[in-house]
Amino acid sequence: MKSIILIGGLLLSSATHQAFAQEQCGKVTIADMNWSSASLIANVDRFILEHGYGCEAELIPGDTMPTSTSMVEKGEPDIAPEIWSNNVKELIARGVNDKRLTIAGNSLSDGGEEGFWVPQYMVDKDPSLKTIEGVIAKVKSFEHPEDPERGAFYGCPAGWGCQISAENLYRALKLDAAGFDLVDPGSGAGLSGSIARAYERKKPWFGYYWAPTAILGKYKMTKVDFGTGIDADHFRDCISQVECAEPKVTMYPSALVQTVTTTAFAERSPQGFEYLGKRSLTNAQMNGLLAWMEDNQADGNIAAEYFLMNHEDIWLKWVPTDVAAKVKSAIKAL
């Protein structure tokens, strides 16, 4: 009889604890941003918070500025899984200072990445192409689509924010004098298409690109080293500005990519918040996932299921054993 009472007490205690955890987490809104990497992370968070922590998780449409503003002013959504903080730096700082927002951690552990790149197959044949000096020395090998006397440097599409930094670094590196023309690819698709065509034919290519992206997941590229390191202040004050009279050479600083929550959520669900602090991917991991999404025409939900099914080696590090067991059980039921 004592055993029955003890077992019954333990079961009741367990059920009470689970009900309490679910009540504490309650309804959680997650911003599903309108780009692939953010949508993937949002769907992973929804699945793990719902099945692992007992949250009533819901995705709502989001974008950087409106989501950040709404979280500061209205306290919703609860979670922004992938915020490129440099784009809303002052707004995020104000939210944190006013105790409306809390930074959970970095959603990309090595940050967003930008740079000038060449294909890996070129570097394999000529290691000097890892450096800007080596690229300039081989300028004539980077065939211009219209002028055989000039080399081609593919810049960022017109109208994009990166157009400014790419053009200023083109000037700082004196690539015009070295024999390179700055080629406008016309669009993001045009820029990625130029890399794909070069890879298919194993032709030289030199230009601007960024990560995480499906392109860098599909095609192995090497970032060209300028030999200067990073001057973050000069990049901020000059290279990234339209008015930059005397641009100096600097590598691109990494972009801070964070998971941000409302402070109310962080206080209401400390276990969920702890998970978000551990949930992080490298650029290389995300590049590969984005390539899979593109090849399979998968949305964020399908990609999250693929990730959870095939990458336990990554996500098991984010959650305790009991939560992992619940998530695994939910995955099996898919």
UniProtKB/TrEMBL annotation:
Record key words, sorted: Signal
Looking up InterPro entries in the UniProt record yields: ABC_Gly_betaine_transp_sub-bd
| Superkingdom of the organism of origin | Bacteria
- One GO location term (cellular component): ATP-binding cassette (ABC) transporter complex
The record's annotation in Pfam families points to: OpuAC
Domain (ABC-type glycine betaine transport system substrate-binding) spans 27-308
Q: Which SUPFAM superfamilies match?
A: Periplasmic binding protein-like II (SSF53850)
Report a single Gene Ontology molecular function: transmembrane transporter activity
Q: Which residues form the signal peptide?
A: 1-21
Write the protein's name: ABC-type proline/glycine betaine transport system, periplasmic component
| Originating organism | Shewanella psychrophila
